[in-house]
Amino acid sequence: MKTIFLAGGCFWGVQKFFDQFDGVVSTEAGYANGPDVRPGYQDVRAGSGHAETVKVAYDESRITLTELLARYFMIIDPLSLNRQGEDAGIQYRTGIYYTEPGQLPEIDAAFRAEEEKAGAPLAVEKMPLRNFFTAEEYHQKYLDKNPGGYCHIPRALLNLKEGAGSR
Q: Are the C-beta atoms of residues 166 and 19 closer than 8 Å to each other?
């Protein structure tokens, strides 16, 4: 079992997106890489410095980090700084936060490929995870509980039918 932390704008859609893939064992919405003080949602909205982030636990025998990152780049604008869709602010920044240095070669390769495709440096943070605080329960699986809820990710991408199912 491996874990990667992905910030891609509002965590509701990012969580829903990754829950559909075979090999993703679990996801958890939370706040990452801000001050070492547990924030609440209102703190994050007020600019605490944390990024809305999804902790993705995956079985690397069923899905690779390279595959996860390719899918991650499908749902973000990698050139947008502190904004995804209509969501703007530091909490909506994009980032790939890792806990194992051995993951860095795959992350670096994904970055290079995306930068070549974009023809510009990415606005995506790439760094070790400093901290992660689980978000309030009402944020967990939010779009499953509220199917009509707002999401910056196109709805068609939230149901690709590749091992779809709730985690």
A: yes
Task: Single out the catalytic residue among 7, 10, 14, 54.
Answer: 10
Q: At what angle do helices 65-74 and 104-118 cross, to 10 degrees?
A: 30
Residue 4 dihedral angles phi and psi, to the nearest 5°:
-140, 150
Each domain of the chain, given as residue ranges in start order, spans 2-158
16: left (phi over 0), alpha (psi -120 to 50) or beta: alpha
pLDDT digits (tens, 9 = 90+) for 18-65: 999 999 999 999 999 999 999 999 999 999 999 999 999 999 999 999
Please tell me the CATH code under which domain 2-158 is placed: 3.30.1060.10
* Residue 28: Cβ within 10 Å count: 20
Instruction: Please enumerate in sequence order all residues whose Cβ is within 8 A of that of 154, keeping only pairs 6 or more positions apart, or say none.
Output: none
CA distances from 60 to 20, 22, 23, 54, 151 (A): 16, 11, 7, 17, 28
- In the residue annotation, 151 being an active-site residue is answered as no
What Rg value do the Cα atoms of the chain yield, rounded?
15
| Among the listed residues 64, 65, 85, 167, the one whose alpha carbon sits nearest the alpha carbon of residue 126 | 65
Statement: the pTM of the whole predicted model exceeds 0.90: yes
